[in-house]
Amino acid sequence: MNTMLRKSVLGIAGLAVAGGLAAGPLNHHEVGPSGLSEAAVVQADKPDAGKLIPHGVQGAQSRIDLSDEQVGNAKAIIAATKKAGLPERAAVISIATSLQESKLENLGHLGDANDHDSLGLFQQRPSSGWGSPEQITDPEYSTLAFLKGLKQVDGWQDMPLTEAAQTVQVSAYPDAYAQWEQQAADIVGQYWNS
């Protein structure tokens, strides 16, 4: 199935994966009892916005409403990032990448709607060395595999999100990751310390 037809089928199914295919690993506020607004209390616990979006967002931003399953997958990405000993910025890059690749849905094989073997939160491919289908569809494993590739990108901490994600994913749409940076940062800001 050609790429244009594949994207049309996926879009109709509501599973549009506008990102490319991974090439494989790189070896109004109410006042609370304290007298402070709830937002002020929550803000004190959130990671520093400068750590989350050090370069500011690039281009128009997209945003989707998340289901409980998608929030759970975002939390799994955050937990795996912490397990890997990486900072909040790595979680922002990972979540933005997953928003682009799968809309934070842990996709199994899409059959005829998918002309490759891309799976999971990051649309990683077993045939490209990311792991077995069972591994790739495990949120912790797939996140750790993505982060392993990210750590191999010299200067990932200081580069724009879309460049870091693209270097790992090798997408046919390298600038597409940038549109998810604000939502990814908001997710990390909300759940990093929970």
Your description of this structure?
The chain has 194 residues and is mostly helical. It has a domain at 64-194. The chain has nine helices and no strands. The chain has helices at residues 3-12, 38-45, 49-52, 68-83, 88-102, 133-136, 139-151, 161-169, 181-191. Helix 4 (68-83) packs across helix 7. The chain is globular. This is Secreted protein. It comes from Micromonospora terminaliae.
Set out the fold topology.
Elements: H1 3-12, H2 38-45, H3 49-52, H4 68-83, H5 88-102, H6 133-136, H7 139-151, H8 161-169, H9 181-191
Helix pairs in contact: 4-5, 4-7, 5-8, 5-9
List its salient traits.
single chain, 194 residues, mainly alpha, 9 helices
Find the count of extended strands (DSSP E, 2+ residues). 0
Identify low-pLDDT runs: 1-44
Mean pLDDT: 79
Class of secondary structure makeup:
mainly alpha
How helical, in percent, are the residues?
40-55%
- Distance from first to last alpha carbon: 43 Å
Largest sheet geometry: none
In short:
With 194 residues, this protein is mainly α. The chain has a domain at 64-194.
